Amino acid sequence: MRYVALLRGINVGGKNKLPMALLRDALGKTSFYGVTTYIQSGNIVFNSDLKSAQCADIIRDLLKAEFDLAIPVIVKKQEVISDILKANPFKTRTIENSKFMSFGFLNESPAQEKVKVTEEFSNDMETFKIVDNVIYFYCGVGFGKTKMTNAWFEKKLGVTSTMRNYNTTLKLTEL
Asked: Gene3D superfamilies, per this entry (predicted)?
Protein backbone atom coordinates (compact mmCIF):
# COMPACT_ATOMS: atom_id res chain seq x y z
CA MET A 1 0.00 0.00 0.00
CA ARG A 2 1.25 3.50 -0.83
CA TYR A 3 0.95 5.95 2.07
CA VAL A 4 1.48 9.63 2.77
CA ALA A 5 2.72 10.66 6.22
CA LEU A 6 2.23 14.27 7.27
CA LEU A 7 4.35 15.52 10.15
CA ARG A 8 3.05 18.51 12.07
CA GLY A 9 5.32 21.47 12.76
CA ILE A 10 8.56 20.31 11.14
CA ASN A 11 11.18 22.92 10.16
CA VAL A 12 8.80 25.82 10.87
CA GLY A 13 10.25 29.01 12.30
CA GLY A 14 13.47 27.31 13.39
CA LYS A 15 11.63 24.75 15.53
CA ASN A 16 11.70 20.97 15.21
CA LYS A 17 14.61 20.92 12.78
CA LEU A 18 14.68 17.68 10.85
CA PRO A 19 16.76 17.22 7.70
CA MET A 20 14.72 15.17 5.25
CA ALA A 21 17.80 13.19 4.12
CA LEU A 22 18.36 11.95 7.69
CA LEU A 23 14.67 11.13 8.01
CA ARG A 24 14.71 9.14 4.75
CA ASP A 25 17.77 7.21 5.93
CA ALA A 26 16.14 6.40 9.27
CA LEU A 27 12.88 5.31 7.62
CA GLY A 28 14.90 3.13 5.22
CA LYS A 29 15.84 0.98 8.22
CA THR A 30 12.18 0.20 8.97
CA SER A 31 9.87 -2.15 7.10
CA PHE A 32 8.86 0.74 4.80
CA TYR A 33 10.09 0.76 1.21
CA GLY A 34 10.04 3.22 -1.68
CA VAL A 35 10.48 6.06 0.84
CA THR A 36 10.64 9.59 -0.51
CA THR A 37 10.17 12.99 1.08
CA TYR A 38 8.83 16.17 -0.40
CA ILE A 39 10.07 19.63 0.58
CA GLN A 40 11.25 20.39 4.10
CA SER A 41 7.89 20.53 5.89
CA GLY A 42 7.56 16.87 6.82
CA ASN A 43 5.90 15.08 3.92
CA ILE A 44 6.78 11.41 3.43
CA VAL A 45 5.50 9.04 0.77
CA PHE A 46 6.25 5.35 1.22
CA ASN A 47 5.04 1.80 0.77
CA SER A 48 4.14 -0.56 3.58
CA ASP A 49 2.21 -3.75 4.16
CA LEU A 50 1.01 -2.43 7.53
CA LYS A 51 -2.13 -0.48 8.38
CA SER A 52 -1.97 3.33 8.48
CA ALA A 53 -2.23 3.50 12.31
CA GLN A 54 0.71 1.08 12.64
CA CYS A 55 2.74 3.18 10.21
CA ALA A 56 1.98 6.34 12.20
CA ASP A 57 3.14 4.61 15.40
CA ILE A 58 6.41 3.50 13.78
CA ILE A 59 7.12 7.00 12.46
CA ARG A 60 6.19 8.66 15.76
CA ASP A 61 8.42 6.24 17.72
CA LEU A 62 11.29 6.71 15.26
CA LEU A 63 11.04 10.52 15.48
CA LYS A 64 11.26 10.32 19.27
CA ALA A 65 14.06 7.73 19.41
CA GLU A 66 16.25 9.04 16.58
CA PHE A 67 15.59 12.79 16.61
CA ASP A 68 14.09 13.48 20.08
CA LEU A 69 10.96 14.93 18.45
CA ALA A 70 7.51 14.32 19.92
CA ILE A 71 5.26 15.54 17.14
CA PRO A 72 1.92 14.49 15.67
CA VAL A 73 2.02 12.19 12.65
CA ILE A 74 -0.97 11.68 10.36
CA VAL A 75 -0.80 8.82 7.84
CA LYS A 76 -3.28 8.39 5.01
CA LYS A 77 -3.39 6.11 2.00
CA GLN A 78 -2.18 7.98 -1.05
CA GLU A 79 -5.46 7.19 -2.82
CA VAL A 80 -7.35 8.90 0.04
CA ILE A 81 -5.33 12.08 -0.60
CA SER A 82 -6.38 11.84 -4.27
CA ASP A 83 -10.01 11.41 -3.22
CA ILE A 84 -9.74 14.49 -0.98
CA LEU A 85 -8.53 16.56 -3.93
CA LYS A 86 -11.39 15.28 -6.09
CA ALA A 87 -13.95 16.06 -3.37
CA ASN A 88 -12.75 19.66 -2.94
CA PRO A 89 -15.94 21.74 -2.58
CA PHE A 90 -14.04 24.84 -3.77
CA LYS A 91 -12.78 23.40 -7.09
CA THR A 92 -13.91 26.41 -9.13
CA ARG A 93 -12.12 28.86 -6.86
CA THR A 94 -9.07 26.58 -6.68
CA ILE A 95 -8.79 26.48 -10.47
CA GLU A 96 -8.92 30.28 -10.51
CA ASN A 97 -6.19 30.63 -7.88
CA SER A 98 -4.77 27.52 -6.22
CA LYS A 99 -2.43 29.50 -3.93
CA PHE A 100 -5.42 30.30 -1.69
CA MET A 101 -6.45 26.64 -1.19
CA SER A 102 -5.24 24.38 1.59
CA PHE A 103 -6.27 21.20 3.30
CA GLY A 104 -6.26 20.47 7.02
CA PHE A 105 -5.62 16.81 7.71
CA LEU A 106 -7.08 15.86 11.09
CA ASN A 107 -6.06 12.96 13.31
CA GLU A 108 -9.75 12.15 13.82
CA SER A 109 -13.18 13.43 12.88
CA PRO A 110 -14.21 16.23 15.25
CA ALA A 111 -17.49 16.21 17.14
CA GLN A 112 -20.33 17.46 14.93
CA GLU A 113 -21.36 20.17 17.39
CA LYS A 114 -17.80 21.59 17.23
CA VAL A 115 -17.86 21.45 13.43
CA LYS A 116 -21.17 23.32 13.35
CA VAL A 117 -19.93 26.08 15.69
CA THR A 118 -16.60 26.41 13.85
CA GLU A 119 -18.23 26.59 10.40
CA GLU A 120 -20.15 29.67 11.58
CA PHE A 121 -16.85 31.59 11.21
CA SER A 122 -16.67 30.76 7.50
CA ASN A 123 -17.22 33.79 5.25
CA ASP A 124 -16.83 34.67 1.58
CA MET A 125 -13.10 35.47 1.78
CA GLU A 126 -12.16 32.78 4.32
CA THR A 127 -14.42 29.90 3.52
CA PHE A 128 -14.01 26.37 4.70
CA LYS A 129 -15.89 23.10 4.90
CA ILE A 130 -15.10 20.32 7.34
CA VAL A 131 -15.88 16.85 6.03
CA ASP A 132 -15.05 13.87 8.22
CA ASN A 133 -11.37 14.37 9.10
CA VAL A 134 -10.47 17.00 6.50
CA ILE A 135 -10.72 20.79 6.45
CA TYR A 136 -11.12 22.24 2.95
CA PHE A 137 -9.98 25.85 3.39
CA TYR A 138 -10.08 28.53 0.69
CA CYS A 139 -8.44 31.63 2.17
CA GLY A 140 -8.88 34.54 -0.22
CA VAL A 141 -7.16 36.99 2.15
CA GLY A 142 -3.98 34.90 2.06
CA PHE A 143 -2.63 32.53 4.67
CA GLY A 144 -0.26 35.15 6.09
CA LYS A 145 -3.17 37.43 6.97
CA THR A 146 -5.82 35.05 8.27
CA LYS A 147 -6.53 34.43 11.93
CA MET A 148 -7.84 30.99 10.94
CA THR A 149 -4.53 29.21 11.38
CA ASN A 150 -3.86 25.55 11.98
CA ALA A 151 -3.73 26.27 15.73
CA TRP A 152 -7.07 28.11 15.51
CA PHE A 153 -8.73 25.09 13.87
CA GLU A 154 -7.20 22.73 16.43
CA LYS A 155 -8.52 24.81 19.31
CA LYS A 156 -12.02 25.16 17.85
CA LEU A 157 -12.32 21.50 16.82
CA GLY A 158 -10.43 19.84 19.68
CA VAL A 159 -8.35 17.65 17.34
CA THR A 160 -4.82 17.61 15.94
CA SER A 161 -4.43 19.11 12.48
CA THR A 162 -1.68 19.69 9.97
CA MET A 163 -2.23 21.91 6.95
CA ARG A 164 -0.89 21.53 3.42
CA ASN A 165 -1.42 23.88 0.50
CA TYR A 166 -3.01 22.74 -2.73
CA ASN A 167 0.22 22.32 -4.70
CA THR A 168 1.88 20.25 -1.97
CA THR A 169 -1.23 18.09 -1.58
CA LEU A 170 -1.38 17.52 -5.32
CA LYS A 171 2.33 16.61 -5.47
CA LEU A 172 1.87 14.06 -2.68
CA THR A 173 -0.58 12.17 -4.92
CA GLU A 174 1.97 12.06 -7.74
CA LEU A 175 5.07 10.79 -5.89
From this structure: SP0830-like domains
Cβ proximity of 145 and 130 under 8 Å: no
Tell me the β-bridge partners of 75: 5
Q: Taking the complete model, does pTM exceed 0.90, yes or no?
A: yes
Instruction: For residues 125 and 146, state if they share a domain.
Output: yes
Please check whether residues 50 and 91 belong to one and the same domain: no
The answer on 166 and 103 residing in a single domain is yes
pLDDT, tens digit, 9 for 90 and up, residues 86-125: 999 999 998 889 999 999 999 999 999 999 999 999 999 9
Q: State whether 54 and 102 are in the same domain.
A: no
pLDDT digits (tens, 9 = 90+) for 45-88: 999 999 999 999 999 999 999 999 999 999 999 999 999 999 99
Query: Which whole-number Å values give the CA distances from 78 to 52, 102, 154, 166, in the listed order?
Result: 11, 17, 23, 15
What does residue 72 show for φ and ψ, rounded to 5 degrees? -65, 145
Domain harbouring 24, CATH code: 3.30.70.1280
Q: Which helix (H) or strand (E) holds 162?
A: strand 161-165
CA dihedral (165, 82, 120, 118) positive or negative: negative
